[in-house]
Amino acid sequence: MRVSAHSSRATSALKVEHADAVLIGAGIASATLAMLLRELEPAWHIVVLERLEGPALESSHAWNNAGTGHSALCELNYTPMDTHGRVSIDKALEINKKFQLSRAWWAHLVENGTLEHPERFIRTVAHMSLVHGEENRRFLKARFAALHPHPLFSSLEYTEDPSCLAEWAPLVMEGRTANTPLSATRSLAGTDVDFGALTRALLEAATKAGTSVHFGSNVVDLRRMGKDWGVMAHTHDSTHVIRAPFVFVGAGGAALPLLQRSGISEIRGYGGFPISGQWLRCTNPELAARHDAKVYGKAAVGSPPMSVPHLDTRVINGTRELMFGPYAGWSPKFLKSGSMTDLFRSIRASNALPMASVAPGNLDLIAYLASQLTQSFDDRLAALAEYLPGAKAEDWELLEAGQRVQVIAPLSRTRGTLQFGTELLTSADGSMSGLLGASPGASTATSIMLDLLSRAFPAKASEWEPRLRAIFSTEGDARDHLARTSRILGLTEPPR
């Protein structure tokens, strides 16, 4: 049975469908998994359920995420410095390698004709890091020295020269005084990814290959039905149940309450803390045309990673955009289209104490959120002026960004820890997996889904391994792999 948002639906009886896998949510995670399973098991009946009337309308929507193609080329929070001035690059290497897996997967799909017109979702855009002052200069120089020798970061350049900075990012230097020393790194191997366009392309390809996608289908219950899971969903005029031996919950902020409803023991103790955001969007096309880079700064003390300031060239649905932010906000909703009761309904006896325990250790985050919530438009414009000295109010408008639910993971029955990354949970029998958390989930979705395959389908490992190795081979020079995927995806090849 195939159901779409426009299909006629019977209302008199509960409809039951059988599938090999059910994926909840039509964002980048489910779209990636759908195509991986289609590649490995072309005969499987795969069903995607989405509450909204189309794909990629929440966190995967281009205006709801950073869209950098997270590869740690410019994101300074992935390279912390210790008290001795040593910069750790482990996280940056991990993130970059995971993004290379995403590039390899997209290149494979382009090469075999499954994905067409890669320019619609990925483009070359320079990635820059820009810092102010001598202390930050020492950090950025140490970061550059630690990263540049690695093949994945050999494209990085460093400068303190104002004339060089004016060449890299003219608007950033225009009208700037020389009072504060500026330092920057740049990589010409950076990308801009429209994850909304990519998600739509992946699901379109999956549908052509036989995947059933149900829009306007709100999952309300997950229950064991023998060896299967029963996934109950409401549409505007009917209720249907899909039985399947495997379920993936990739529903963004809705993943936590759905996993709680499933009753799997692995979700016990987990909670979530919602954080929203806003962007300043440039409404002056002439101004947007003069900036061609993603310029990232350092996050304020206590701020979450999603709030790292950046002046960002984007191409969204084929239109060149310039944006700055994000500015943090707060709402108890778990989704942008969610309910004001989401946070309160997620509290359980098992997670109440772990959730409460994180507050004393995150007072700086609470203070940061409070300061952001009280900002005026002029305050936000002043923050933009640090990166764009000539910023004028009439050239910018404020837009709502996406809603994120940061993971509160249990350390014990009474203590928890607030996490800013993503976390994949899988039941002991492998029959259910769910993805919690936020950044950099979109950019690393391929790596996360490969991890899911190994956890959820261990019996298939030997059968699938040759196919996966052929797609994701890591043998040879990292720069050669980067150059190859650049050629296939139509990107500018990085300098050697």
Automatic annotation (TrEMBL):
A GO term, aspect molecular function: L-malate dehydrogenase (quinone) activity
EC numbers, comma separated: 1.1.5.4
Source organism superkingdom: Bacteria
Biological or metabolic pathway of the protein: Carbohydrate metabolism; tricarboxylic acid cycle; oxaloacetate from (S)-malate (quinone route): step 1/1
Keywords, alphabetical: FAD, Flavoprotein, Oxidoreductase, Tricarboxylic acid cycle
Catalytic activity: (S)-malate + a quinone = a quinol + oxaloacetate
Co-factor requirement: FAD
InterPro entries: FAD/NAD-bd_sf, MQO
Protein family per UniProt: Belongs to the MQO family.
HAMAP family registered for this protein in UniProt: MQO
Record protein name field: Probable malate:quinone oxidoreductase
Organism whose genome encodes this protein: Dermabacter vaginalis
